[in-house]
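# step 3/5: fold
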Amino acid sequence: MALYQGIEVDLYSSGSALPFYEDPDGVDTRELQTRRVYVESITNATFVIKIRINKAFDMGPCDALLASLSFDGRDPCCEFPMMKQTWQNQRRGLTNWISHIAEFDEVSGKWGASALSFGSLDIQESSDARVTLAQVQELGMIKLSFDRVTLRQRPNSMPTTKVSQRRITEVSEKLMKGKAISNTISTTRSYGIDEPKIEHSYFPVPGRYGKDIIFKIFYRSRHALQTIGCIPRTPSPEAAEVIEPTPDVTESPAIKTEGSLSNTEQEIKSLRARLALLQRNTKTKLEPRSATAFANIPSRVKREHDDSEGTALPKRQRTSHRIEVVDLTDD
């Protein structure tokens, strides 16, 4: 719910009130008497608007509070008075619901009541749609204006202007200039109605009560709301809290610090400790052999011939016995 000066505004979809998010820029609009909020838009989801004037509202010297509704910078599509007398008679204030708006169909030439929904906005690299920069600046916004007015009954009711407002469904990427808007307000004809009549003339109240009160509801996708900071982003897996396993009662409790080890490192550390304990229990001392233990070892060792290249030849040793020379000549 958005509350400002005793006026409450809600958006309902599928029977539940949509949560409003405060403007992350923190713009001070008290001098402009404007309330700015954000809401999540889901493509093709229908919605209704609830307006309640509670008892804290200061009506001042007026006959009614004139409510005016517009979308995406278009002309007001819905306008109705909330009577001061009725508000005074209600113990908990005066409530009005906007579920449909009156629209004139130029093709059939008939009036009808149309439901409201979040349509999709097609952003093209280049578009032939005739959309101005001023219209783009107002895209993605539901605007509600409230004016304190005095009424005068018309002698003859006046028919409503038969103008069908064209909805913006396509816009060029150049005009968007990085604006994170993926939806627009769409209307769907629900049933036919008689031609609306204007039965009163409205005159603004002069003085300090003559300034209008404005609600600006910016509708954005969930991703866009996360980007601008209205909705917290989903935490990454690294930031998720690690649940430490319950230590075994047979082991000494580990001291947990800010840099506590992960589950795998704890298991490796435990396995290494158990392996060291097992090695200590099974280790045996080797006794040195006595001199007699080597007596039976043969002094000669048969060496295998090594044919590998680069192996040095065995050194020749001079023997100590006499070498005899045999003469093989005929003399």
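# step 4/5: annotate
The first helix runs from residue 84 to 89.
# step 5/5: archive (pending)
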